[in-house]
Design goal:
Helix content: 40-55%
Number of strands: 3
Mean pLDDT: 90
Strand content: 25-35%
């Protein structure tokens, strides 16, 4: 559910949606790290001015904790 939300939302923002990729890694029981890989041109768009865009995405993702009981850490990295 979280993975699908992040991908669908990110596709609306970026210029190169074909380069989007997500990796999810369990750090602890109840705590996952999600890394969103995007084209180098699109990383700035995903982060936004003063981190507003990524913080908005993180706020929605943190709301998923009530549904599945997991906490998430979201990172954005460039591919190439």
């Amino acid at each position: 559910m979280v993975r699908d939300f992040i991908l669908s939302y990110a596709r609306l923002i970026v210029r190169h949606p074909e380069d989007l990729r997500i990796e999810r890694r369990e750090l602890d029981e109840g705590y996952d790290e999600i890394t969103l890989y995007a084209n180098a041109e699109d990383v700035g768009k995903l982060i936004g001015k003063e981190g507003r865009m990524i913080n908005a995405i993180k706020a929605v993702v943190s709301g998923c904790k009530a549904k599945d009981g997991k906490s998430y850490r979201l990172n954005v990295q460039s591919v190439g």
